[in-house]
Input
Amino acid sequence: MIDGLDSAEGVSPVARLQGAATGDRIFRTLLTIAALAIPTLLGFLVYELWKGSQPAMAKFGVDFLTTSTWDPVADKFGALPLIFGTLLSSLIALVIAVPLSVGVAIFLTEFAPGPIRRPIAFVVELLAAIPSVVYGLWGIFFLIPVMRTTLFPLLQKVFGFLPLFRGTIYGNSMLAAGIILAIMIMPYIMSVTREVLASVPGSQREAALALGATRWEAAWTAVVPYARSGIVGAIILGLGRALGETMAVTMLIGNRHEIVASLFAPGYTMAAAIANEFTEAATDMHFAALAYVALVLFGVTVVVNALARLLIWKVSKGRASGGAAL
Amino acid sequence: MSRPTLLLGLALAAAACGGGENPPAGQPAATPTPPAGSALTGAGATFPNPIYSKWFDTYNKKTGVQINYQSIGSGGGIKQFTEGTVDFGATDGPMTEAQLAAVQGAVLHIPTVLGADVVTYNLKAIGATQLKLDGPTIADIFLGKITKWNDRRITSLNPGVNLPNQDIIVVHRSDGSGTTYIWTDYLSKVSPEWKTKVGTATSVNWPVGLGGKGNEGVTQQVKQTDGALGYVELIYAISNQLSYAQVKNASGTFIVPSLASVTAAAASATFSPDTDFRVSITDAPGADAYPISSFTWLLVRPDNPDEAKARALKTFLEWMVTAEAQQIAAELHYAPLPAPVAALVKERITTLKAGGKPIA
Output
């Protein structure tokens, strides 16, 4: 391409075009390589995990996913509590973060007075820039001591009839991990939702208002449905982050390899187990089991994402939408 | 100025004496000094990282030999050493037979300093009173068989202390670590049930308790939870002023964990002259021995084909067991090797070879 430009003067248009074609070809090749690099990288990643987990796969097979013993001394491994913990902590995070962040986004695009929109959006997005370990430390030194003396006993008092809120309150728990995850994924859900809502054409609102809707009704009946596949996309983005989050969760979840109904009980996640045990895994089987966990985590992420795409596709079928935001 | 030089000279002289076909001592000490700027790499345990960094730095200033150490954990250290990607490894738990079998050639464990675990706890009802515990009681707490602070087994060890009827919240390490290795090694020795049910490793299947990441994670959970009990590294407990318990040792005395009582544990262990140093000193017999103590080791090849590196490593190791280097360890709160062990290590270092030949 550069050649083509340099020799532009005094060269026949055909030659110039040919030069450009060569440039195009090179450019195209480069881009193709760049595009292929990502799937190749992913391929290698999966292959390495698959290869690394072979001993564990051969020994435990599918039982790995359904059993609960994790005994590095006896080389006996089952990942069910880890899978359960990963899914549950992410679910708690979504339950807390989705209403909050979608609410903030609707407020910012539909209701907030002009001057405060930017500062609030900026502050929420700033949350995304805080490193995970800082969240973990904040959780340890602030969130947990506060929760243990205020929110947790309150929940137990009010909802104590549910098994979810029974048992000893340790502080470090599934619920604490879910809450920190909620705070961590909020900025992602909020900012994507805000973008999606902002891209809803003004005519949607105007039409609803012209029909006599209040601002609330206009937002809820005309704007949000229009953007709903985009909002689902935003939630999936948050979920993806919650599933893989490691450091802050490890610091707050209590790291107990067990499935307990109570949210006040400690739990464990796949990412936390890998982070905790990989460096000191003593036996080959222990290594293989952790690689197997990584592979399962990868699989869970793929499945969740596929389901999400399916959901968006269902939601947006036959509708104009902000689905392009994904 | 003259003291270090003298010590180095002594170390070199000692090295010269050890080898069979060496010229007699008194030969100019200059010959074995490794070339300035040569570099060694090592990887492994995180627990001794502060002292190793200090040693390598001090040694570099003295001799110009650069030693790079990555503190990636004992497991990683053993792995890299086995694969031959580092010149030496470092570990808090000795290599197992299976791990040794995976290494091409032999492995020499060199004890460097000592570490210990303490039982830390937080019980508002007793304030700053120092509790007394023994091995079987600790094991049963960690097995979930003793669940209350006023259990008869604990109260009988602590006459006069008014222990409350309160749950014991057990806290352990969630990450694999040498600290856990020492802990479980001790519990396996004092409790047959622990040995069969749980065993000894850097991470185990905990019967009860919460997991905290790192010494700091365990400390946080213990400090914030009334009624909690956990274990942390002695140095960490000292530098963070945690309250910790006295533990009854094998000869029946309650021992306050300290550098001196940890060194005493190592001194009371018996070594055969041909020991491979893979010796566990938990539950050591000495009257003053703190029972939850352990060596931490460097892993080296007894016969290294690369002569320059073999020589550099040997010279460093010789310096490491000198009183000067061990004094630096004590300053950083690492319990130094007792003199007989240091002498034994020193003697063993002289057997290091390069390409099948003794290192001159």
Remarks:
- The beta strands of chain A are 70-71, 76-77.
- The radius of gyration of chain A is 25 Å.
- Chain A touches chain B through 32 residues (CB under 8 Å).
- Chain A is about 75% helix and 0% strand.
